[in-house]
Design brief:
The complex is a heterodimer of chains A (197) and B (335). Chain A has eight helices and six strands. Chain A has 197 residues and is of the alpha+beta class. In chain A, strands 1-2 form a two-stranded antiparallel sheet. In chain A, a hairpin with a 5-residue loop joins β4 and β5. Chain B is mainly α. Chain B contains 16 helices and five strands. In chain B, α1 packs across α2. The chains are: A alpha+beta (197), B mainly alpha (335). Chains A and B meet through α1, α3, α4 and β1 of A and α1, β2, α4, α5 and α9 of B.
Chain lengths: 197, 335
């Protein structure tokens, strides 16, 4: 473990013992705190809207333990104490392959079970939506690429390519992040904009 | 002698208990490695692994090959930890997880409620047995007690303070209120078995301990430096809930006063600081059977009844002493 993470953990523990900030956090209902997030993360596929998700999740860690792609990570204190030990996905590091096992194993329905078929996935999974930065995308610079399209598990449903493999995101994108994971540009030209509900 | 003898196996239950604790803990250590192994098999990635990962793969393959044909799928059968886990399709959860989730969500989700049914039924029957027989933190806490004993023999000053045991019920109440106020299951952050299960997974599968480990080490230090087994006795919200559920447990330990020689080893060995010598077990006894194992005169046994038997007074040696002295009139024939 790096010193930085260790110090973060130390601070987190100190914060957890001083329970005072908890009282300042208001009950759900008024969506006031959403835009202040600094970390861009996705909840696992099938997760309920953020406030509902936090009320359901018991921080048991089974979703991460069953994930065959090891894409589910857990928050320390960096996203607030309410998110402590809750699952998240950073698609650029490891993206979701939509295997839907986490929803199956979740005991509290924080991640809802979704059948691994096209219609249920399109209907219930809302992790986010991909957005292309045309100034960074190689295909838009005249260098035919198309990697994001080939990485997408929902080709022609979530993403389509046109002339010179120029990608276009369609409205059915569920935000699994495999395109962002596979983008060969640094920084990535396609990103998932999370949807916390 | 007409005095009742306890069934001879009760004395050995304490060993069985250590075995049970060790198995649970070993499983929690093994599960993260099994998961990592699963992801390797799922990715068909053997050739791409680093040497240390190959080693892990080989070891886990040897260990699991007997039980599985397709490790990537079959090993999904056991997942999770004692906080909440699935075991061959059967989902089990800690009652505290259910209580905390109901408080945070302010509504009842029936399928999750049912996952606590089996633990609750066992607790109604056996009391706070989870704390003594299953809790992965208990293994570490009891080993920590032993280490503290050695330290004190070496002349180190070990904490032995006492607080009000009702404190943990307050922690439970405040924890539930805070969960309701913040809409998040906060108790998971301070409940040692949940922490241990999670942190072992973080350490072995995700590459590093998290903040929970520091909290847990803090509780170990508290136990050593302030109060023996202090966290379980005075703070643990889960222990509080189990105690309440087990208040009228059917399976209890009782003292056989006719055999008892008042040596008080039972009181000394009791991790929860209860008073078996005076028949005060109460709702917090976890049926760990350490007092049965330690008793030199076999004066501890099990009894089936929903309440403790009332105080029986001193054992046979104490009674003899009282009799002898009361005849001479030197002391009052107290109970």
């Amino acid at each position: 473990m790096q010193r930085r993470t260790f110090l973060d953990a130390l601070l987190g523990a100190a914060a957890a013992t001083a329970l005072s900030p908890l009282l300042a956090e208001a009950r759900p209902g008024v969506p006031t705190r959403q835009p202040t997030r600094s970390i861009r993360y996705l909840r696992p596929p099938g997760a309920r809207p953020e406030e509902e998700f936090l009320a359901h999740c018991i921080h048991c860690g089974q979703c991460g333990e069953i994930c065959p792609n090891r894409c589910i990570q857990y928050f320390g204190h960096e996203n607030g104490l309410r998110s402590l030990d809750t699952p998240y996905i950073v698609p650029r590091e490891q993206a979701c392959i939509l295997c839907m096992k986490c929803g199956e194993v979740c005991p509290t329905d924080a991640i809802q079970p979704v059948a691994r078929e096209l219609a249920p996935i399109l209907g219930k999974v809302r992790m986010g939506r991909a957005r292309i930065d045309e100034r960074l995308c190689l295909s838009y610079q005249g260098k035919t690429c198309g990697v994001c399209y080939r990485a997408c598990p929902l080709q022609d449903v979530a993403i389509r390519v046109g002339r010179l493999e120029q990608p276009r995101v369609l409205k059915d994108c569920v935000g699994c992040g495999l395109c962002e994971r596979s983008c060969i540009q640094i920084p990535q030209a396609i990103r998932i904009i999370p949807d916390y509900g | 002698m007409g005095t009742p003898k306890p069934f001879f196996l009760w004395r050995h239950l304490n060993k069985l208990r250590w075995l049970s604790l060790s198995i649970v803990f070993a499983m929690l250590v093994a599960l993260p490695f099994m998961h990592v192994y699963q992801t390797f098999t799922a990715a068909h990635a053997y050739d791409l692994l680093a040497p240390s990962e190959k080693q892990l793969y080989d070891v886990m393959e040897t260990l699991t090959a007997v039980f599985t044909e397709d490790p990537a799928e079959d090993l999904d059968a056991i997942k999770g930890n004692t906080w909440s886990g699935s075991f061959f399709g059967l989902q089990l959860s800690d009652p505290l997880a259910v209580a905390g989730q109901m408080a945070a969500g302010l509504k009842v989700y029936a399928p999750f409620l049912l996952t606590a049914l089996i633990p609750v039924l066992f607790t109604l029957l056996l009391g706070r047995f989870f704390c003594g027989w299953i809790c992965p933190a208990t293994l570490l806490y009891e080993l920590n007690t032993n280490v503290s004993t050695w330290l004190s023999r070496l002349g180190f000053k070990v904490g032995n303070r006492h607080f009000d045991r009702r404190l943990k019920y307050a922690v439970l109440g405040v924890g539930l209120l805070l969960s309701a106020a913040t809409g998040s299951v906060l108790m998971a952050a301070i409940y040692p078995p949940a922490i241990v299960g999670r942190e072992l997974y973080y350490a072995f599968a995700l590459g590093g301990f998290g903040a929970g480990t520091l909290f847990f080490v803090g509780t170990l230090l508290f136990d050593t430096l302030v109060a023996r087994r202090g966290f379980c006795r005075y703070v643990c919200p889960g222990g509080a809930l189990y105690s309440l559920l087990g208040r009228y447990r059917l399976v209890r330990i009782r003292r056989i006063a006719e055999s008892c020689n008042d040596c008080a080893k039972c009181n000394a060995v009791c991790e929860f600081g209860l008073d078996p010598l005076r028949d005060h077990f109460g709702q917090e006894c976890n049926n760990c059977t350490a007092c049965i194992a330690v008793c030199p005169t076999q004066a501890m046994t099990f009894v089936l009844r929903p309440t403790d038997i009332p105080e029986q007074g001193p054992g046979h040696l104490g009674k003899q002493y009282l009799r002898a002295h009361s005849e001479k009139g030197s002391i009052d024939a107290a109970p």
